[in-house]
Amino acid sequence: MATLIHDHSHSLRPNRQRKIDIFAPLRQGLDRIKFRHSKFAHLVCRLIPCQCAFERDITLFGRIHHIPALCKINPLYDDLIRLRFRALTYLTDVCGEDIEKYIC
């Protein structure tokens, strides 16, 4: 009597799942923003800080506690910083303005 051997190794392959980026529409929206007016570019530069504003040390009950920068946890942080950079570039290249007050 013949023995049939069936190879099930294909079922042991890891399940390849696609990552779903739920922030993709927001990222694309930020990338589509065009600067046509210096007032809007100034507003963006004022609203988006040049560095993370949350990192600090606090003293509580006589002990110093360090609160790390939470900006890197924000999934849109890099996109917002790019938007701010584009606003700064618009102000200098197109408008010829001094952006020193926005540089930390």
Can you give a write-up of this model?
The protein has 104 residues and is α+β, with helices and mostly antiparallel strands. It is 36% helix and 10% strand. The radius of gyration is 25 Å and the shape is flat. A hairpin with a 2-residue loop joins strand 1 (56-60) and strand 2. Strands 1-2 form a two-stranded antiparallel ribbon. The model has no long low-confidence stretch (mean pLDDT 85). It is built from three helices and two strands, in the order H-H-E-E-H. The chain has a domain at 35-102.
Number of helices: 3
Spans with pLDDT under 50 lasting ≥5 residues? none
Counting DSSP E segments of at least 2 residues, the number of strands comes to 2
Question: What is the residue-averaged pLDDT?
Answer: 85
Shape: flat
Give the helix/strand class: alpha+beta
Specify Rg, calculated over alpha carbons.
Answer: 25 Å
Strand line-up across the major sheet: 1-2
Element-by-element helix/strand order: HHEEH
Provide the β-strand percentage band.
5-15%
Alpha carbon gap, first and last residue: 82 Å
Largest sheet: 2 strands, antiparallel
As a percent range, the share of helical residues equals 25-40%
What order do the helices and strands come in, and which of them pair?
Layout: H1 24-32, H2 38-47, E1 56-60, E2 63-67, H3 77-94
Antiparallel strand pairs: 1-2
In short:
With 104 residues, this protein is α+β, with helices and mostly antiparallel strands. Helices cover 36% and strands 10% of the residues.
